[in-house]
Amino acid sequence: MKDTDWKILYELYMTPNITKVAEKLFIAQPTLTKRLQYIEEEFQTRILIRSNKGVQFTKEGEFLMHQAELYLQFRSGIDRRIESFKQEGIGTIRVASSVTFAKQYLSDLILEFQKKYPKISFDVQSAHSHNLTNFLTDGTSDLAFIRGEYDCDLYKRKLLSEKAYLVCARPLREDEILDECRVDCIMGDATRSLLERWWKERFQEIPRSLVTVRLVDIAWEMVKKGVGYTVGFYDPKQLEESGLWHQPVYYRNGQPVERGTWLIYSKRTEKTDFVNAFIQLAENWFQ
């Protein structure tokens, strides 16, 4: 398959209309249709079902589309890396980061780095931690900052630890928790596992009611208005500024519930000098 074929599959999945995709890729519609036929002949399977409403991918087609997405990310990473080699002292560092780490620390790291390397650009991908290792294994990113423990064949350096807090609009005793609504945020698997372990140790019942939101800001706003309480790994400074009541949570053995933040990258992948310099800065920053 050609690069164009992978692009066709990806764009058709995003916009299931052959005419629109042909226009977007500057390909004649008959040519695009012929390329789809070649793909089906190459894999000896049907990948699309055509109708008046557009196109629908078969199960085999969806698999190929996801492979197209990975391939295009991989190819884009190669192109960016080659381009960075062309101009000495000019390049791009591709960073994958958890959303909260990017908010709290990444801007300070980048500002400090650019004092010495003003011509270096940054391509930052933010996602939940359980997705970030994929950015390294598929070549999309040079390094990643993740929160929580994840098994992966990558170098890991622990940068800091954070405590989990119970947060509410008013002081909340432990014997009152089951009577209140819990507001949860979407979180990574490792973080969820830590909080579930704490919950199972402290309580024998599920929460009375549960509200799930995507962002911490929304959870805090609900808690401020009295919806209930939330439990998570929050920055103590931001908690103080919020005016919300909060306290750390502990396992039964008295140990605080803590989550590590890790810098991860592959030692087998060759890196530019400025990528190595940024890794060194990040490791030293949190000592």
Describe this structure in words.
With 287 residues, this protein is of the alpha/beta class. It folds into 3 domains: 3-80, Arc Repressor Mutant, subunit A (Orthogonal Bundle), CATH 1.10.10.10; 90-160 and 260-285, Periplasmic binding protein-like II (D-Maltodextrin-Binding Protein, domain 2, 3-Layer(aba) Sandwich); 161-259, 3-Layer(aba) Sandwich (D-Maltodextrin-Binding Protein, domain 2). Helix content is 46%, strand content 24%. It has helices at 3-14, 18-24, 29-43, 59-86, 99-116, 129-137, 189-202, 216-224, 236-242, 273-285, and strands spanning 48-51, 54-57, 91-98, 120-127, 143-147, 155-168, 181-185, 209-213, 229-233, 245-248, 258-265. The strands form 3 sheets. Strands 3, 4, 5, 6, 9, 10 and 11 form a 7-stranded mixed sheet that branches. It has a two-stranded antiparallel ribbon with strand order 1-2. Helix 7 (189-202) links the parallel strand 7 and strand 8 (209-213). It starts with a helix and ends with a helix. The model has no long low-confidence stretch (mean pLDDT 88).
